[in-house]
Amino acid sequence: MQSYSSVSFSEKEETEESKIMTRILLVDDHPIVREGLRTVLQRRTGWEVVGEASNGVEALQKAESLQPDVMVLDITMPKLNGLEVCRLTRQRTPGIEVLFVTQHDSPQMMKEALGAGAKGYVVKSNAARDLLEAIEVVSQHRIFTALARGDGGSSAVSGPSKS
Amino acid sequence: MKTRILLADDHEIVRRGLCALLQRHEGWEVCGEAGDGREAVEKARLLKPDVIIVDIGMPNLNGLDATRRLLQQDPNAKVIVLTVTDADQVIREALDAGARGFVLKSDAARDLVSAIEALQSKRMFFTPRVNELLLAGFLEKGQTVSRNQPPMLPTLTAREREITQLLAEGRSSKEAASLLNLSTKTVETHRSNIMRKLSLHSIRDLVVYAIKNKIIQIEMPPEGNPPAPTPTLQSQPQRTDSPV
User: Fold this and answer.
1) Which residues of A touch B241 (CB under 8 A)?
2) Contact criterion met (CB < 8 Å) for B13 and A128
3) Sign of CA dihedral B99, B103, B109, B110
4) CA within 20 to 30 Å of B229's CA: A56, A91, B23, B60, which one?
5) Is the whole model's pTM more than 0.80, yes or no?
6) Other CB atoms closer than 10 Å to residue B182's CB: what's the count?
7) Directed axis angle between helix B88-97 and helix B63-73, to 10°?
8) CA-to-CA distance for A53 and A24, rounded, in angstroms?
9) Do A36 and B14 touch (CB under 8 A)?
10) Nearest to B17 among A33, A76, A157 (CB)
């Protein structure tokens, strides 16, 4: 007797919910900044802001519970600063990539951030311009960095992950 | 008629967040945005907004000096100062400059709406923490709020403060002159006067002075965080994305 394999659904019947989405956790102690980040990210379909945190301790808790693809992270925060959050997140949940969005327009701070395990570093003054590309690159496990130069320009650098 | 609001903050991300917050309110409209204090003054002149929200830490012309200019331009201007710091000195300067509202950025999502509503009703608004500081100042017997701090900016004129900021931000006298529509010689004269009045001997001294007196602001790195070992980066500066 011939056996039939069951057909679940065709590719054409793929639903909106089953499409792969980049899930993003926003971490910044200023609600207004988080609102601004969310407004910029909403321009991109296929991305979802799954949660927000206002300090470093909350960031770790939400990273563990929500398991985002990308954590957008400030450096200067109460309770636990962003560099420590990054180190701990990368140790505990290495599947989560970290993109720093910070006021520190400093090559030294950027090196520390990358040394802590981040894949991305963007300066807040240019975040509205660089954020979308940064998340795109970092979600693919590649490095994206963009500092603002003194003349108001920026140099964006992206490349393969070192891992 | 809608309440027309001008936003002045050098971070577009913050302006996006403020826009999203304010535009939820029917009857309010963000009529313009500015990325620095100079642009804020110019746009206020052109757009004549009902309320102006001004970040303190902006380049070219900081928020406090922009507030002074806005009130000179229009004494009825309603200015809300938005700031990351609630230092006594900053509060006093904001009030002295003529701001009618003072809101901490960390509390903006909660307080900014109330602040605008207060100013619309011809009242002033201060974030609760500022109210506490002001009250503490009043309760101290015959003392100012910041008694332990040295006297404020003794004798600098508004123009001298502007030039102090531009020089402390790293601009040359020529660049400052171009921004201010002055001759380089005039800026140099102001610079000499500033250095003499404040007993400063170098640009480094000027920068330190500007930071201490909140003419420019800097972001401090997180405390207690030893530098991580610097990794050897495999990615070299490239202009296009590399394939994974």
Assistant:
1) 137, 142, 158-159
2) yes
3) negative
4) A56
5) no
6) 18
7) 20
8) 11
9) yes
10) A33
Tokens 């002033």 map to which residue?
A: B124
Tell me the shortest Cα–Cα distance from A151 to chain B, in angstroms. Answer: 10
Residue A136 token pair: 């795109």
pLDDT tens for chain B, 244 residues long, are 899 999 999 999 999 999 999 999 999 999 999 999 999 999 999 999 999 999 998 989 999 999 999 999 999 999 999 988 777 778 888 888 889 999 988 888 889 999 999 999 888 898 777 777 667 766 654 454 444 544 455 568 889 999 999 998 888 999 999 999 999 999 999 999 999 888 888 888 888 888 888 788 766 666 554 444 333 333 333 323 333 3
Could you say which of B15, B222, B235 has the minimum Cβ distance to residue A83? B222
Verify whether the Cβ–Cβ distance B220 to A160 is below 8 Å: no
Q: Which two tokens stand for residue A146?
A: 């963009």
In the numeric block, the tokens 């003794």 are attached to B154
> Is there a contact between B16 and A40 if contact means CB atoms under 8 Å apart?
yes
Cβ atoms B202, B194 nearer than 8 A: no
Where would I find the beta strands (DSSP E) of chain A?
Answer: 22-27, 47-53, 70-73, 97-102, 120-123, 143-148, 154-159
Given an 8 Å threshold on Cβ–Cβ distance, is A128 in contact with B241?
A: no
Beta strands (DSSP E) in B115-167 are 125-126
Among the partner residues A36, A103, A158, nearest to B16 by beta-carbon distance = A36
Distance in angstroms (rounded) separating the CA atoms of residues B67 and B59 = 14
